[in-house]
Target: acylglycerol lipase
Amino acid sequence: MFRIRQMRKLRVTMPGRTIEIYTKISMHRAGIKKHFLPMDDDMNAKLCYCEKGVEVVGQPSLVFIHGFSSSKSTWLSVIKHIPDRYHCIAVDLPGHGETVGFNEEYYIATNVVDLLKQFFDRLNFIEPICLVGGSMGGAIAAMFAMKYPFDVGMICVLSPPPGEEYETDMVQQLRLGKYHVILPETFKQYYALMKILSKKKIPFARSLAKTYFKIHLRTLNQHKRILQIAFEYDYPNLGEIYRQLKYLMCPTLIIWGREDQV
Ligand SMILES: CCCCCCCC/C=C\CCCCCCCC(=O)OC(CO)CO
Model:
């Protein structure tokens, strides 16, 4: 999706601090830039994120959190439709996309939430943000808002994974360790999942799907580990986190498809 034209070190000065960001200027027609943000305590760990536009006083930045086994690029098709006057950020979570160097501890949601807090503090947003999360990213957005309510002005939660009391067949299977329902191991499983995950029929050439499947295989084991950890540490608390959401005072948009099988 990105064609890289150049890479350079950028020094960005914002109110209160100066940070260094390794920037890859992409030629994506939506005018989206890609950044790598090295962590203070571990220079090998780098968060990768995309950015469109600049911060505007009095207007929240929109921050997008992707789902499990997905990446920031899933939001590009959304972001390109958002007017240029809005500042948009889409980040790759640990173990996903081009974010690199984070150990397994960062596959635990609470640590991801604290990492996002660190990330947002580094970006030094001037306004409380609008946090948008899809699927697992929705659960993370909700958890973030609960823990750091002053950092969010509003949240948007799209098809978050259900808590225990509303467990779907698919989540039950995942909980029982049958990860292939969402992490296919064969091309046949992969192709079938593509259909389950998209309500609208997408004309998907098999040859293209085969290429995507090969790419998927590269991250399979890492993503299995993430699921394992999510079900051990996070899933048992998810229902309780959702129940507490009612105490959150910021405007919240929750969208959940009735026929969503996940
Ligand atoms: C970095 C890791 C942080 C871990 C935080 C865990 C918080 C949630 C706890 C357990 C639920 C796991 C259920 C996963 C199913 C999600 C489906 C999903 O995201 O769908 C994809 C499509 O595959 C959408 O792009």
Notes: The domain at 31-161+238-255 is CATH 3.40.50.1820 (Rossmann fold). Residues 67-70, 93-95, 107, 109, 112, 135-136, 139-140, 161, 182, 197, 226, 230, 234-235, 238, 262 surround YOG (CB under 6 Å). The chain has a mean pLDDT of 88.
